[in-house]
Amino acid sequence: MLAIEKVILHHLVMDYKHPFVTSFGRVEQKDFYIIEVIDQDGYSGFGETEAFETPWYTEETSETNRHVIESFLVPLVLEEEISHPSELAQRFQKVRRNNMAKAAVESAVWDLYAKKQNKPLYQLIGGAKNAIDVGVSIGLQPSVKQLLNVIETKLAKGYTRVKLKIKPGNDVELVRAVRKAFPEIPLMVDANSAYQLSDIKTLQQLDQFNLQMIEQPLANDDFVEHASLQQQLQTPICLDESIHTYSDVQTAIALESCKIINVKMSRVGGIKNVQDIEDYAAKNGIALWCGGMLEAGVGRAHSLAIASLAQFTLPADTAASENYWERDIIQPTVQVKNGQVHLPEKPGIGYEIDREALDYFSVEKVVIEKK
Ligand SMILES: O=C(O)CCC(=O)C1=CC=C[C@@H](O)[C@@H]1C(=O)O
Ligand SMILES: [Mg+2]
């Protein structure tokens, strides 16, 4: 039994090495919370809030994460002992949606539980491999020349697949230039919902470039229109922003809105929900892969653990710490060698929290104790 006695919200602000630009805008810093849960025996588990500062990607923000965690989720964790972290998804159903807030707390309890079981988290959740193939996601660049240079440097670091951000006006010719320079590389594009079904002619032109997939071309609630688009495209559609729940996965599969799903633990509300989605995707022959949220080390470690599940067959967007940060908050940092991250075999997330780095980036600490 886990009796959580204390929860600490470490409020951190970290600057990215380079701004990340998508069809929605720029991300330059990460203002977020590391959630530390501490139990009766003094064990700590860690989770990370992954919402951005503005609600462009999902409806959540770093501030709504804090509000929901502090006012609603932490009281639910403290009120009663937990026999297994998979119970929390159900306990959190008293709070609607707010998946990123839920995932940060639930994943921290999984880390704590795995540490007490003396097992790596990826093994505890049923991971099938201990080396993860890693691709890299490259934001929109000021010019094609700069984009080609960035791709060159990432390929030299061994990444196994390149994902480009596209938006109307920065699409067919951009991909043509990249394909010309790199005819063989595994390549995909992500539109972050920048298109409408009426843009079909443009999207069909992308079929000529042998892309692994087109990620989230249409709006986040357009299951029917994605199905119509998929019927008229050869390139597989991958859904990202559309998928928040198990039932979204059922809808996408039933309507044939996509052939591939990008799973982010935070977007679907935690590790238990990822396990259920993985099970359903396996039964229905839908390929999964683990997306990234430009996380810091704790969130990244959780992403890597879910990427070890058997149905996650395509390279993950889990680039190395040095891709984002001058200094990360875990030790060792995430390293990519020959296109893979080797999962640490230590208990829990397998990476130590770098307490000095945590203090360095900390702007506030909220401590909530069981009454
Ligand atoms: O490197 C990563 O962590 C992935 C970056 C990335 O592509 C994304 C992060 C967050 C929001 C989006 O812009 C995007 C995605 O849509 O997958
Ligand atoms: Mg995406």
The percent range for helix content is 25-40%
Distance between the termini: 19 Å
- Kindly report the CATH topology of the largest domain: TIM Barrel
Oligomer: single chain
How many domains, in number, for the residues? 2
> In CATH, what is the class of the largest domain?
Alpha Beta
Radius of gyration: 20 Å
| Main sheet properties | 7 strands, parallel
Spatial sequence of strands, sheet with the most strands: 5-6-7-8-9-10-11
Total count of strands? 15
3D structure, described in words:
The protein is an alpha/beta fold and 371 residues long. It has two domains: 4-118 and 354-369, Enolase-like, N-terminal domain (Enolase-like, domain 1, 2-Layer Sandwich), CATH 3.30.390; 123-342, TIM Barrel. The chain is 33% helix and 22% strand. The chain contains twelve helices and 15 strands. It has helices spanning 62-78, 88-91, 99-116, 121-124, 144-156, 172-181, 200-205, 223-231, 246-255, 271-283, 297-307, 355-361, and strands at 4-22, 25-39, 44-48, 131-133, 136-138, 162-165, 187-190, 214-215, 237-239, 260-263, 287-290, 330-331, 340-342, 352-353, 362-369. It has a seven-stranded parallel sheet with strand order 5-6-7-8-9-10-11. Strand 6, helix 6 (172-181) and strand 7 (187-190) form a beta-alpha-beta unit. The longest helix has 18 residues, at 99-116. The model has no long low-confidence stretch (mean pLDDT 97). The site of magnesium ion has 7 residues, from loops.
